[in-house]
Automatic annotation (TrEMBL):
SMART domains: ENDO3c (SM00478), FES (SM00525). Keywords: 4Fe-4S, DNA damage, DNA repair, Glycosidase, Hydrolase, Iron, Iron-sulfur, Metal-binding, Mitochondrion, Nucleus. The lineage of its organism: Eukaryota, Metazoa, Chordata, Craniata, Vertebrata. It catalyses: Hydrolyzes free adenine bases from 7,8-dihydro-8-oxoguanine:adenine mismatched double-stranded DNA, leaving an apurinic site. One of its GO terms (molecular function) is 8-oxo-7,8-dihydroguanine DNA N-glycosylase activity. Pfam families: HHH, HhH-GPD, NUDIX_4. It comes from Campylorhamphus procurvoides. SUPFAM superfamilies: DNA-glycosylase, Nudix. It comes from the Eukaryota. Its main location: mitochondrion. GO terms for biological process: base-excision repair; mismatch repair. Binds 1 [4Fe-4S] cluster. This is Adenine DNA glycosylase. Residues 60-212 form the HhH-GPD domain.
């Protein structure tokens, strides 16, 4: 068994744990948001369908705001209400529905995993967090715990960004909250705290608290249902750590959960002293030349050429305007030339660099890449025959473009 977290970070008093569970659940029953996946999971008697409904929501919610997800979730569940329906969908259809939600590999992996459940597990979802994580591609520890506790009532905790924030504040954990050692301790705490009779509701309540009350910048401590258990708040109000037995063992520099000695408590930050993260890695800076090739149909309406990205890597399988990553510090004239050469390969006919009209730049921030698209446009007269043997490409109207599996960045480019 892992060693318990050192004082004052652990929950030592069973009475306090019970009170915390009771207060949190009562608040959740009163204040929880009305969300479509909650309604579906609560009303669904079939265990596999219930697990699927929660699974889809959890994958969509990763790194994405609830407000954004709701519409995507409703459309997805309408189109593919069961695992079996999703297993029969094409990747193109999945990408089309996912377009705009970001982190596109999530949709692809969800569909691959649904196919696996149907073909290898006789259509039945694994019922425990351990099996969900082991058997389903794309299902990590958090998602497995969420599905198992919410859909199947397994008394297992979950740790996501919201839970990290709440637990770090409740227990004054100021060590780097992204470090594996701290994350392990938080999992142990979440597993110890989870309410045994209502694990799914308890986990959702803890996450809901982080999303709506114990928010990153200006937490609403006055309205918090667990404020009496919160050591960060105690410290803010009384200026010193909560007096607990053995507290002198903590904070002298060797506690693995206390803030590092060189980053002491900053009273201007209050409870937002917690959690702390190591400095973020700077995103990679990239420049990509992209060309909107335009043709007019016989009625004079514009059509645009889009090409499909490779089936792995960033934005796998999505469609885009012909694009080419550029080396840093390339002169503008040189940019045009390399782009013209690249386009020539698509068109099968010479493209004059000076015919490319510079339109402007579009900046798009992916999670780890700061991408600048240098946008050019080129109007074409006459027929262009695309080579069916090369990478898939097609001409689309503006309406078809928006209905295709294209990224938000490409929509900005258009
Ligand atoms: Fe978060 Fe404030 Fe509640 Fe503590 S009292 S858990 S800091 S909202």
């Amino acid at each position: 068994a892992p060693a318990p977290p050192p004082a004052p970070h652990h929950f030592t008093d069973p009475g306090e744990v019970e009170a915390l569970r009771r207060n949190l659940l009562a608040w959740y029953d009163r204040c929880k948001r009305d969300l479509p996946w909650r309604a579906l999971a609560a009303a669904e008697p079939d265990a596999d369908r219930r697990g699927y409904a929660v699974w889809v929501s959890e994958i969509m919610l990763q790194q994405t705001q609830v407000a954004t997800v709701i519409d995507y979730y409703n459309r997805w569940m309408q189109k593919w209400p069961t695992l079996q329906a999703l297993a029969q969908a094409s990747l193109e259809e999945v990408n089309e529905l996912w377009a705009g939600l970001g982190y596109y590999s999530r949709g692809k992996r969800l569909q691959e995993a649904a196919r696996k459940v149907v073909s290898e597990l006789a259509g039945h979802m694994p019922r425990t967090a351990e099996d969900l994580q082991k058997l389903l591609p794309g299902v990590g520890r958090y998602t497995a715990g969420a599905i198992a506790s919410i859909s199947y009532g397994q008394d297992t905790g979950v740790v996501d960004g919201n839970v990290i924030r709440v637990l770090c504040r409740l227990r004054c954990i100021g060590a780097d909250s992204s470090s594996p050692a701290v994350i392990d301790q938080l999992w142990d705490m979440a597993n110890a705290l989870v309410d045994r009779s209502r694990p799914g509701d308890f986990n959702q309540a803890l996450m809901e608290l982080g999303a709506t009350v114990c928010v990153p910048k200006a937490p609403l401590c006055g309205e918090c249902p667990v404020k009496q258990h919160c050591r960060a708040r105690h410290r803010k109000l009384f200026g010193k750590p909560t007096p607990v037995p053995d507290v002198e063992d903590c904070g002298v520099g060797d506690c693995p959960l206390c803030p590092p000695a060189m980053e002491p408590w900053d009273s201007s930050l209050g409870v937002t002293n917690f959690p702390r993260k190591a400095a973020k890695k700077q995103p990679r800076v990239m420049r990509t030349a992209t060309c909107v090739l335009e043709q007019r149909d016989c009625h004079g309406a514009p059509k645009y050429l889009i090409v499909q990205r490779p089936s792995s890597g960033l934005l796998a399988g999505l469609w885009e305007f012909p694009s080419l990553p550029l080396p840093q510090d390339l002169q503008e004239e040189k940019e045009r030339e390399v782009l013209a050469d690249h386009l020539q390969a698509w068109m099968g006919q010479p493209v004059a660099a000076k015919g490319l009209q510079f339109i402007g730049e579009v900046i798009h921030i992916f999670s780890h890449i700061h991408q600048t698209y240098v946008v050019y446009s080129l109007h074409l007269d006459g027929d262009v025959t695309l080579d069916p043997a090369s990478t898939p490409s097609r001409w689309v109207t503006e309406e078809e473009f928006h209905a295709s599996a294209v990224s938000t960045a490409m929509k900005k480019v258009l």
